[in-house]
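DM from R.C. (forwarded with permission)

"hey, sorry to bug you on a friday — could you get me a structure for this? deadline for the figure draft is monday and I only need the backbone to look sensible"
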Amino acid sequence: MLPETWVGLAEHLLSRDDQTEVDWRSATHACYYAVYHTAATDLGRDPAGADAGHAEIQDLLLGLPIPPARSKRIMAARVVYRELKQLRVKADYHLKQSFTADEADRALQLAQKVLPTR
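My reply, with the result:
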């Protein structure tokens, strides 16, 4: 499965007329994992490996040299990763806090900067 598939799922969930909070949370989750898998792979890490934890990927992204040393896609991931991770943590773990369509839309915008689907 390609990471772009996760972004496509998020687009589908957020285009429905009968969206609910679970759709917004699920779309955010999908957007984050699309970027996480892409970043880990582009950084030469196996997303399932011990050296590809979420904090490790964030640290690697933030420590990257200024372009053109890295690909456009990995530099886009560098810019969006922290905010997208924060949205995903809220969506996945803070179930007593409301999660909005605007937050899910923001997650999709961030993911599309790394993995444009159109």
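R.C.: lifesaver. The helical segments are 3-15, 21-42, 54-62, 72-93, 101-114.
me: no worries. The radius of gyration is 14 Å.
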